[in-house]
Amino acid sequence: MTESVARLRGEQLTLGYGKYTVAENLTVEIPDGHFTAIIGPNGCGKST
């Protein structure tokens, strides 16, 4: 089995909206050849 290489990687990310922190110290890794989507209801802050 071959090891996949990360195409996109973010470390120690903090996400927030205004004065509210919604995720802290987040690490995200998307391997080469994969697709990732953020889904949720309208108005829940996906594009923030």
From TrEMBL:
Span of domain ABC transporter: 24-48
Look up keyword Transcription and say if it applies. no
Localization per Swiss-Prot or TrEMBL: Cell membrane
> What GO CC annotations are associated with the protein?
plasma membrane
Ion transport listed as a keyword: yes
Could you state one GO biological process linked to this protein?
monoatomic ion transport
Q: How does it sit in the membrane?
A: Peripheral membrane protein
The record's listing under SUPFAM superfamilies reads: P-loop containing nucleoside triphosphate hydrolases (SSF52540)
Q: Which InterPro entries match?
A: ABC_transporter-like_ATP-bd, P-loop_NTPase, Siderophore_ABC-ATPase
Which Pfam families is this protein grouped with? ABC_tran (PF00005)
Main localization category: membrane
Per UniProt, the keywords (alphabetical) are:
ATP-binding, Cell membrane, Ion transport, Membrane, Nucleotide-binding, Transport
Q: Return one GO MF term.
A: ATP hydrolysis activity
- The protein depicted here goes by the name ATP-binding cassette domain-containing protein
Organism of provenance: Escherichia coli
